[in-house]
Design a protein that fits this description.
This protein is an alpha+beta fold. Helices cover 51% and strands 7% of the residues. Strands 2-1-3-4 form a four-stranded mixed sheet, sandwiched between helices.
Length: 246
């Protein structure tokens, strides 16, 4: 048996794609070091390691080899440790497509909607670090921090309304993938982790609980990501922005 290469995972504490990569490493039984980047300075730090244009987290070093992004990390882990598989046969191609969809179509909602809710309830930012709601001085800091995050991620009220309106259709697609047996099996695959990590961070938003409770997405998210700090109480989003349950 070949010796395991040295693995270093670079990420940020609130990053759900980083959590997905971390769980994938655990599924593979691989030892690794996790290094946290600096909030606000992580783009420059990541580009210094992973190259120009690769400023987002997560990134993984396998020895001196740089692997950037959750999907690339899943694929590289499959090469390092084929068992248990993240892309199991005979559904490997379908899992890859669901992984791609989760990355390209769903993942951004895990940024826009929590940060969007925090715009209206900034005192809740303290809970995402495992603490209590913030006092007035802490809330002043949170307001500035959330505003900067909106600018960084290009979040706007119009984008929030668009993402909220499109969420039920995305949850329906997650349910379809589960019904087809592509996700939601006994062992996690790449699509479970990609999709589940995003749904898990959405579960921190009280306004979304009626849409998520009892859904296939909720079951997958809680199974593979049981612990996730943070809670924004219901009533954060303006009335009428969150679609009614069907």
């Amino acid at each position: 048996m070949s010796e395991q290469p040295t693995i270093v995972l670079h990420g940020l504490p609130p990053s759900h794609p980083t959590r997905a990569a971390e769980v994938a490493l655990g599924v593979k039984g691989l030892e690794f070091e996790r290094v946290e980047m600096d909030m606000g300075g992580h783009n420059e730090q990541m580009e210094a390691i992973y190259g120009e244009g690769n400023g987002t987290v997560p990134g993984m070093l396998v020895g001196e080899e740089a692997v950037h992004g959750s999907r690339a990390i899943f694929a590289r882990l499959e090469e390092i440790a084929p068992e248990p598989p993240l892309f199991p046969e005979p559904i490997a191609d379908a899992v890859r497509e669901a992984d791609r969809w989760g990355d390209e179509e769903l993942q951004d909602l895990g940024r826009s909607l929590p940060w969007g809710a925090l715009h209206f309830r900034p005192e809740a930012l303290g809970t995402f670090g495992g603490g209590e709601t913030l006092d007035p001085a802490g809330t002043d800091f949170a307001i500035r921090f959330v505003r900067a995050t909106w600018k960084y991620h290009g979040i706007s009220a119009e984008l929030l309304a668009e993402h909220l309106a499109g969420l039920p259709a995305k949850l329906d697609h997650v349910a379809e993938l589960a019904a087809e047996g592509i996700i939601g099996g006994e062992e996690p695959n790449a699509a479970d982790l990609q999709i589940g990590s995003t749904i898990r961070v959405l579960l921190t938003i009280g306004d979304l609980e009626p849409l998520l409770t009892g859904s296939a997405g909720e079951r997958i998210a809680l199974r593979w990501f049981p612990d996730y700090a943070g809670h924004v109480p219901a009533g954060a989003f303006p009335a009428g922005w969150v679609p009614a349950t069907r």
